[in-house]
Fold this sequence. Notes:
By secondary structure, the protein is of the alpha+beta class. The chain has a single domain (3-79), classed as Alpha-Beta Plaits (2-Layer Sandwich), CATH 3.30.70.20. Helices cover 34% and strands 24% of the residues. It contains 3 helices and 4 strands. The protein has helices at residues 3-12, 29-33, 55-67, and strands spanning 13-19, 38-40, 46-48, 73-79. It has a two-stranded antiparallel sheet with strand order 1-4. Strands 2-3 form a two-stranded antiparallel ribbon. Strand 2 (38-40) and strand 3 (46-48) form a beta hairpin. It is globular and about 40 Å long. The protein starts with a helix and ends with a strand. The chain binds iron/sulfur cluster. Residues 19, 24-30, 46, 68-70, 72-73 line the site of iron/sulfur cluster (SF4).
Amino acid sequence: MNGAKAQGRAAGHSRLLRVDPVACDGIGMCAHLAPHLIEVDPWGYPVLTGHPLEDADARRATIALTACPRSAIFIEDRPAKIV
Ligand code: SF4
């Protein structure tokens, strides 16, 4: 990532992987598809890192959310805080 792009991401917005716990059925397919982003708890429900997605993570995150049979996982775009 070049400096201007990195600066724009930091100043503009961040992307977070999120899960809707009501919709999720806890089968854990997402964790198999993006194991470095998603772990599973002892009951099979996803546990997310909560860290903003880097560009290199976006492809895996998209594969995981596309494969989710319940459409329970999604990417949230968060605007930067105004200080
Ligand atoms: S693939 Fe979807 S339904 Fe299955 S554990 Fe992950 S978020 Fe939940």
